[in-house]
């Protein structure tokens, strides 16, 4: 059990990569705190599944772009589970939109959820870990899109590059406290975030054609790499980023 008797807090934990990671972490022995927004059914069924696995779980609703929700998640989650050992910043949105006529609200909302939300959540979690005085691990879900662009993602890719950079700086700031900070960089993982975009058969075919492993990713493909970076197997890994993309990034020709 890679996460025996640890607690793992995860944002965006009611669906997709977040839910898959929460369930896989419970199977590795962790108790789980799930943060979610507006997906009650998904959050509560995840809690029920984790309890069936034999671990404790709690679901706390809130909007990550609101700094108060970060403090509340950490306070209520720690009160329920006793400590905060591992924090996974996963919540994110990608409302695909053309660049030239993108409304300011779409840009601002994407920035506020993906990057500002990550900053507030990671800062709140790190302060709790420092108070506990026994180190910890933080894993942020960045993206292949931190390294490459997207025609309809000019508001999104800067946030993923920002999350990657946040982990690099946090790794330096928190190393002395025994807290490790790393990011995973998913490729194109089929979830609610891109279901509509990939409903376009030509787009899907193009994306699949770029992947040496020959298929789009699934949420469970991220659970293992996240758990590895959160576990003691990665005890000397901090400030690093791990592509999880089926080889898409390197595939020029
Ligand atoms: C929404 C999703 O975001 C990822 O970071 C990457 O850009 C994928 O290609 C896209 O489908």
Automatic annotation (TrEMBL):
Pfam families: adh_short_C2. Keywords: Oxidoreductase. Belongs to the short-chain dehydrogenases/reductases (SDR) family. Signal peptide: none annotated. This is SDR family NAD(P)-dependent oxidoreductase. The keyword Chaperone does not apply. InterPro entries: NAD(P)-bd_dom_sf, SDR_fam. The keyword Disulfide bond does not apply.
